[in-house]
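Figure S4 source data
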Amino acid sequence: LEGDHLFVNKFIYGLRVPFTGKRVLALREVQRGDIIVFRFPVDDPRELHCGSIQYGKDFIKRVVALGGDTVQVRGGLVLVNGKPVPDDTYSQYVDGPKREAEAVRGREFTPEQYQKYWETHGLDRALEFSPPVSGPRDFFGPVTVPPKSFFVMGDNRDRSCDSRYWGPVEQRYLKGRAWFLYWPPSRMKTVL
C-alpha cells in the first residue's frame, strides 16, 4: 500500500555493473509471481502516464509474464501463453475502457501498431485521444513481452497503474525483489 516501507533484496537478481546495464552474480532469474521493485520504465521526465509524471518513481508490482510470453486479459481472466493464470493471487481487474486491438482497430490501430505503442510505453497516451470504447476494462491485448522485459500487474487490479497502461518493464529498470514489510508495524511481514 502507499506509505508502506519495505526492505528490498537488491542482490537476488545480480549486482548491477555501473554504466553497462548488465548484472553479474545473480542468485536466480526473475520468475512469474515475483514481487519486484523497479524504477518507472520511461527515460523522458516530461512524459505523462496514468494521469501524472511517473519518471524516477519506484514502483512495486507482481511479475505476470516474462520476455517472449504473450499476455491478454479476456473477461477478467489473465492469460499467459493462452493459459489462465491461477486467480488465487490475481483476482481483481480494472473496470474502464477496453484496450485490445479489436476494440481500437476502427480507430486506425492494427495489431502491430497496438504492440508497438504498448512496447514503447505509449498505449495509454495513444488511446487517450481515441473516442472511448464501451465495455469493461478487463479486456487487454494480446501483446508479446519483449526479451529481457517483464509484464507486471498490481495485486489491487481495480486501481493499478501497470503494464496494461504503460508497457513492459525492461530489466535495466529492475531494482530488486520485495523482501520484508517493516512499516507500519501492524502490517510487518515477509513479502513473497
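Figure S5 source data
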Amino acid sequence: MLLSIGMLMLSATQIYTILTVQLFAFLNLLPVEADILAYNLENGTQTFDDLPARFGYRLPAEGLKGFLINSKPENACEPIAPPPLRDNSSGAFIVLIRRLECNFDIKVLNAQRAGYKAAIVHNVDSDDLISMGSNDIEILKKIDIPSVFIGETSANSLKEEFTYEKGGHVVLIPEFSLPLEYYLIPFLIIVGICLILIVIFMITKFVQDRHRARRNRLRKDQLKKIPVHKFKKGKWIIHYEYDVCAICLDEYEDGDKLRILPCSHAYHCKCVDPWLTKTKKTCPVCKQKVVPSQGDSDSETDSSQEENEVSENTPLLRPLASVSTQSFGALSESHSHQNMTESSEYEEDDNDNIDSSDAENGINEESVVVQLQPNDEREYRVANTV
C-alpha cells in the first residue's frame, strides 16, 4: 500500500512538473494583452488597451501596422466593403467593427473575406474588455487574421483622429505576459491534488503506525493476567535481582506492589505497567515477550496441556518462562529452603571431613611409630592395638 502511494505521489509530482513547464511555455507564446499605438497626421501618438481574441492567428511579435477603416456596415454581420486600393502594397488595412447583433467569429470572418489583415471590435456603451471566443469549429478553421477587442471610448478616439481618411495609422503590438486568471487556477488545481495525495498518504501512514503500535502493546485484560505480589522484608528472601527496580532504580520497600513477568523479572507496577501498555509488551531488561504473539495465542492451550508430556524431542532443559508458573512467594521460599539445605549439608560435610581427617592422621601416626620400633616391640604394639 505504501509503495503504491509512493509511486502515485511520484507520478503526481512528475505530471505537475510537466504540466507547469508546458503551461508556462504555451502562455509565454500566447499574447493575453495588447496595445494599440495610434499615430495621426501631426505625429501625435496615443496608446489604447485591448484584448486579443481566443481564435485566429496571433499578432506578430514585432506588431502589425496598418491603416484603420470603419466597417460598412458597422456590425459586420454581413459582407462588408473591401479596403481601398493603394499603389503602395506594403500598407495593410485594419477594420473597426461594432459589437452586438452577431457572433464575434462571423464579424472577423467577414473582415477576412473583404481583404483586411486584422479586425478591431469595440464595445458598446461600455469600456470593459471582453475575451472574444467562438463555439463554431467550422468557422474557427476558416479564420486566419488576428483580432482584438477595445472599449467604446477607445473606439471613439480612433474614429475621430486616427482613421485612414484623416491620415492616421495604427500599430497592434502584443504584450506577452502571464495574467493571474490564466495560470493560477490550473496551478491551484494541481497543488490541491498534490495536497490531497499527501494527506491521504499521511493518514494511511498514521493508521498503519497506530495499528502496529497497538499490536506491539499489551492490553488491559492481558496485563491483569500477570501476577502481582506485595514486597515484605523479612518474610521472603528475595533474589538479588529483585532488590532494586530496574526501571526507577529504587529499592523495594514493604508494601510495594511488584509485577512478576514470565521471565522472572520483577518491577514496580507503577513503573512497568506504562511500559507494557504504551510502549512494548516485552520485558525491559531481557526483551522477552510477556505474552505470546497472535499466531501463538491459538496454540497456547494445547502447549500448556502437552507441557508435562515427555517425548524424544523434549529438551533436557525447560524454558526459563516455566518459572512464571510459580508465585513470587513460592519462588522466594524455594530459594530460602534451598539455601538452608545447602548450609546444613555443608556443615555435615565439614564434620565428616574433620572426622575423616583425624582418623587419617591417627592412622598415619600409628604407622610411623610401628615402622620406627624393632620387630619385637612392633608385634607387641600391634597386639595391644588389636
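The longest strand covers residues 45-52. DSSP finds eleven helices and ten strands in the chain.
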